[in-house]
Design goal:
Helix 6 runs antiparallel to helix 7 (87-100) and helix 14 runs parallel beside helix 15. The chain has helices spanning 11-14, 26-29, 32-35, 42-56, 58-64, 66-80, 87-100, 105-120, 127-143, 176-188, 204-217, 231-248, 271-287, 306-317, 334-344, 365-372; strands at 17-18, 21-22, 164-170, 194-197, 221-222, 258-261, 294-300, 322-326, 348-352, 360-362. The longest helix is centred in the middle third of the chain and has 18 residues, at 231-248. 50% of the residues lie in helices and 11% in strands. An eight-stranded mixed β-sheet has the order 5-4-6-3-7-8-9-10, sandwiched between helices.
């Protein structure tokens, strides 16, 4: 099967559009490479759509960070009338301010140490320069894991993958299943065929919910077969069936370019269930080496530094590749997000900004930093 060159969001997505129409049959796929220069690639198109969506929803993210921005307003006041010979005292106060805004101790210390180095080196001389440097330091923390510009293309699949695979994990109540539905909508609305796997086999309502999302997004759903089928076995079968359907071409039952897998919600302190997640990853790797290509952790944006504890535990059991923030409202704690990215080294990929199907946007670090910092910084 011809594959167009790709860096993120994988070739299976890119070859599914040709001059604005889906190109999914094996016969027609052979023509994609010839006419690639004439049409906008799926990766480019999805990157643009996610980017435009992020800009249009900036005000909603801004409103969600009212609490964090209010607490960080002290930092603006702190450096407005700042004197160079008072920098050490000011940095100590800034560290306290960051802690009250839900930055973790390590990240707060790191930010202040970075400012201290720049001040001692004579690279800043007044409060406005310190505030600008503070903003840039936080932005760099958020962009470092993904690299500059990485947020424009929030999913990454290998060039040689026939089907892109996504495993979604998180604690109970974080919003995994709803997020999967929104992600399926974002992909299918741009011409990417999606299949869903109901890997949350412990909660009957979760399967019913995912089946409903499948109907709303026109995505086939693989569900539990028999009472004894465990999540690792279900995901093994789901990937095996999706690969077989993909090889048979569009029109085959279960055909998909991307398989998105749900998992059971679990407390990060439940070691038996956490070990099961590792088995889920391993079972998918047996079918397709290197899968799942993306393992995304869904985090409730209102839980503060508990997000950091969750992310550390999940990262110790599975290979996390990205984070999804949900439930952003006026009580969301933006400082904790910075600390999760800093300490776990995993980028934020998506942000949920509401309850509608369309309310899932790619994460934009610049907009997020503007949202958590007061206007004076």
């Amino acid at each position: 099967m011809a594959m167009a060159p790709s860096s993120r969001l994988g070739p299976v997505a890119q070859v599914s559009l040709h001059n604005g129409f889906r190109v999914c049959s094996l016969r027609r796929r052979r023509h994609v490479k010839t006419y690639a220069a004439k049409s906008e690639g799926m990766i480019t198109k999805l990157a643009r759509v996610f980017s435009e969506k992020a800009k249009s929803d900036y005000e909603r993210v801004f409103g969600a960070m009212d609490k964090t921005r209010e607490r960080l307003s002290v930092a603006d006041e702190l450096f407005t009338y700042w004197q160079l010979d008072e920098y050490e005292e000011a940095l100590e106060e800034l560290e306290d301010v960051l802690l009250t805004a839900d930055f973790g101790p390590k990240t707060a210390a790191r930010v202040c140490d970075s400012l201290r180095v720049e001040i001692k080196a004579g690279k800043v001389s007044d409060g406005s320069e310190v505030k600008a440097l503070l903003k840039e330091n936080i932005r760099q923390i958020l962009t470092a894991p993904a690299g500059e510009g990485g947020s424009d293309n929030p999913l990454s699949f290998p060039d040689d993958a026939e089907v892109g695979t996504v495993l979604v994990v998180g604690v109970n109540g974080a919003g995994k299943t709803t997020t999967i539905g929104k992600l399926a909508h974002r992909l299918t609305s741009q011409g990417v065929a999606v299949a869903l796997a109901a890997g949350d086999t412990y909660r009957a309502a979760a399967t019913e919910q995912l089946v409903e999302w499948g109907k709303r997004t026109d995505s086939p759903v693989v569900v539990k077969r028999g009472e004894k089928e465990k999540p690792p076995a279900l995901l093994y079968r789901a990937l095996e069936e999706t690969l077989a359907a993909h090889k048979n071409g569009e029109g085959t039952d279960g055909y998909a370019d991307v398989l998105v897998c749900d998992t059971s919600g679990r407390l990060h302190t439940n070691y038996d269930l956490m070990e099961e997640l590792g088995k889920c990853q391993s079972s998918m790797q047996k079918v397709m080496p290197g899968s799942p290509h993306e393992t995304l952790l869904v985090l409730d944006g209102t839980t503060g530094l508990n997000m950091l504890n969750q992310a550390k535990e999940f990262a110790s059991y599975v290979n996390l590749t990205g984070l999804i923030l949900t439930k952003l409202d006026g009580t969301s704690r933006g400082g904790a997000v910075v600390s999760v990215v800093d300490e776990v080294g995993v980028p934020v990929r998506f942000v949920g900004v509401g309850e509608k199907l369309e309310d899932l946007q790619s994460f934009d670090a610049d907009s997020f930093v503007d949202a958590i910092l007061p206007a004076g910084i």
